[in-house]
Amino acid sequence: MYLGRLRSGVQWLRDERVVKAIAQALFVLAVFLAFRFFYTNMITALAQRGLLPSFYFLRLTAGFDIGEKAIEYSRAHTYARAFLVGIINTLVVSFWGILFATIIGVIVGLARLSRNFVIRTLATIYVEGLRNIPLLVLLVFWYTGVFLKFPPLRKAKVLWNAVYLSNRGVVIPWPTPTEVWPRYVWVLGAGLVAALAVSIWLIRMGRRTGRMPLVPGWALLTFLVVAVVGWFLMPSAPLALSFPKIEGFRTVGGRRLTPEFMALLSGLVIYTSAYIGEVVRAGIQSVPKGQYEAARALGLTPYQMTRLIIFPQALRVIVPPLTSQYLNLTKNSSLAVYIGYPDLYSVSGTIYNQTGRAVEVTLLMMAVYLTFSLTTSLFMNWYNRKIRFVER
Amino acid sequence: MERPLAPGETLPPPTERITILGWIYRNLLSPWYNAVLTVLGLALAYALLTPILRWALTQAEWQVVVVNLRLFMVGQYPKEALWRVWLLLYLLSLTAGWSWGVLLGKRYATAGLVLLGAFIGLAVLPFAPALRLRWFTLALTALGAWALAYRWRETGWARKVAFALLLLYFPIVIIVIRGFAGWDRARQLWAALYLTGVLAGLVVGMWRPEQRWPAARWGQFGLFLVPLALAVLPGFVAWRFPLVGLAAVTWAAWLTGRSNPTTLKGFARVLVGLYLPLLFLLYQMGPSGILTRAMPQVGTNLWGGLLLTFLLTIVGIVFSFPLGILLALGRRSVMPIIRVFSILYIEFIRGVPLVTVLFMAQVMLPLFLPPGMTIDRVLRAMAGIVLFAAAYMAENVRGGLQAIPKGQYEAAYALGLNAFQTMTLIILPQALRNVIPVIVNQFIALFKDTSLVAIVGLFDLLGIASTVLAQPQFIGKQREVYTFIGLIYWIFSYGMSYTSRQIEKALGVGER
Q: Distance between terminal CA atoms of chain A?
């Protein structure tokens, strides 16, 4: 009787596949209706303002200046060019930020593990102090509280006779190429080729003998030797350090780093280095004690132990979160807008204010950040596949 | 002196004796490079600390903070409505003290004493006398609530009161801070109808009238079929949406009541008891009602300072949590369309910075709404924060879900639980418990991230700084102001992370 009742009912509704298909169909319908609702509202609102979505405005003249640019740009250029300037500025600050944050972060992470009480405590204060303050507060403090509080240019602070600190920015000595630079570039190219050849040879030899030498180290050394020898073989030095000096109301020579750039860079570096320090510490601590003991039992020297046993295993743990910190730094550089550094977000904001094209600007901006993120995740997936434990 | 060992007895391991000198030698001086590092470290600390301390103690003019304290705390929130903030603080003391007494008892006494000491310490600082009295009474309220709750901790009602306080605190905060706009009669009527619908649906569902009168088997569907039928009638076009909503809410309540009649018995009893008082309160929410006159609406444009920072954080946490769980379940769903949708959403949000999401919420959200409907800046920022935080929450929850062994699903299936019961009763409790530390860390990050609303022009704790710094007598006091703001953020973030670490240790989370 029980079975009979089940059969007579709407049995096909009890089929899991049918239920799932219906659920998904309903979901798609709901999402579609929601999107259509939003889209029609948006088009109506935009049509009223005469701003129907189109990317044509990118070809129009921007008409605003950008304080910092790595490529040629003036107010006569197009919006598309302004956008590009923003992207490049974001990349520039992210590059230097990642470089310095990694260096400081590794030092902090190692210091956190030091047996020395003073060093350990200092590193702990650094990490705990910085991780609990919003980055934006840090940035504004650096900008308004430090870099804008430097004396005016006439009374600029001079460090080692080379670095000028003033409220107009920091001027540092900077190498400028001389007339033999184009020839020297060939030397550098030759150095790269030599380094590549040496690495290939070393790897072959390592495979044959079973003792892999420190390939990157030897490659770097080869490149440096070629570069240095080439430098002295040139008729004159290919690069000349240009030192800044004050002339009237401005500095001449060297390279001027604006207060905005310096504040953004130092804020990002300090903030991210605290996180990187934790990543490095966790990575090193993740290597089990037994690995150290086993390495010592095998009679490895401390250097061999670090290079062959500890470092490869720690790196496996460190690299994924480290990459996500790099990505965070890149994304966090969008806070630059609050202190007036013209990064991607800041330039996009200006373009939006001038054209009123909310949808297009948002889409472009997000697309660029998404590209950064997706590229990073692609690298991460490749790396994770490469270093995965190969088990029998 | 030493007595001979009994057979089978073993000596305890030798204790390590560390003298002060030995500790110094081992930790600071040996081997030789450690001594160098020690000296360098001390020199660095000295070089950094002296100028900072000299500035903080002699050169800095903290007057800017003292004068503008109210601005930093509540922004432009009207002075005559400030008592509501204090009321909520007292309620917070009460809730914290009571739930501590019931749920924790005498555990973590040190942490509790530190918190109490902090308030009493504030009462000692040179604030205005009335303010100091308030700090003191706040501490007393918490202590009193703790003592009473500790006395009655074994009783069932004390536990229920604790959970009710914890659950209701957030809605109460929003209602009290916002106040009452003075609803017109139509709105009050609709609210009353919804309340009645929920109650009727719940009670009828639990009661199962068809067991007594077979005729009621289909008759009870009238509860939600009548509003649906009305919605279809041409005369009711204007009320179509509210009527469908009423039917949906009633139906949901009916289903809930029907599926767990025993567990909801107490809850339903309380709701029935509160029905008339709630109707009375609803009536007083009218334009000339007592509630509206006592707590007139304070527009969100006047919310500011630390108050706004907290509200943004709480809204972000409360709403992103369920949304994140749904997204995490969606990402692990066997249904491909739902899975792909969740993955796209999560990866998209995680790939862009929060400011761009806030930007989108500020400039694109108004475009999405039907003409004539507006949404204010604070709500837009809240929407952006919730949408952003949900994606990260989803990834955290997914981490917890992935750690649940397949056997748990199979065991639940074997016991005859359906998919919903398996999730809510078996899987989610374990998964969420495992990721408590990660979730707390995300809440701390969210608290810090709310400072980004300053970029889109809100006056939160950071945004209000520009107002303060624009005052002519305090121009150029950026260091003082931002140091103070940074300190406030630091105290709360560090407090949260410290507490969570202690709780983790006590619970042994992550060790299993």
A: 56
The CA distance from A335 to A90, in Å, is 11
* Measured CA distances, A170 to A184, A256, B476, B501 (Å): 29, 6, 21, 42
- What is the per-residue pLDDT across A90-146, written as a single tens digit (0 to 9) for each? 998 999 999 999 999 999 998 888 888 888 888 999 999 898 999 999 999 988 888
Instruction: Tell me if B352 and A369 make a contact (CB, 8 A cut-off).
Output: yes
Query: Whole-angstrom Cα distance, residue B204 to residue B218?
Result: 12
Q: Name the fold adopted by B300-507.
A: MetI-like fold (1.10.3720)
CATH annotation of A79-134+265-387:
1.10.3720.10
Chain B residues with beta carbon closer than 8 angstroms to that of A133: 448, 486, 489-490, 493
The answer to whether B448 contacts chain A (CB < 8 Å) is yes
- Nearest Cα residue in chain B from A23: B335
Helix axes A117-131, A79-112, angle to 10 degrees: 150
Residue A4 has pLDDT above 50, yes or no: no
- Please tell me which residue, B395 or B7, carries the higher pLDDT value: B395
Question: How close B144 comes to chain A (CA, Å)?
Answer: 32
Q: Which of B306, B395, B451 to mutate to test the interface with A (most CBs of A within 10 A)?
A: B451
Q: With an 8 Å Cβ cutoff, is B277 touching chain A?
A: no
Q: How do the domains of chain A map onto residue ranges?
A: 2-49, 79-134+265-387
Neighbours of B405 (CB within 10 A): 9
A365 chain-B contacts, CB cut-off 8 A: 356, 359
Q: Is B344 on the interface with A (CB under 8 A)?
A: no
The full set of domain ranges for chain B reads: 20-59, 78-178, 185-294, 300-507
Question: Testing the interface with A: which of B39, B355, B443 to mutate, by most A Cβ within 10 A?
Answer: B355
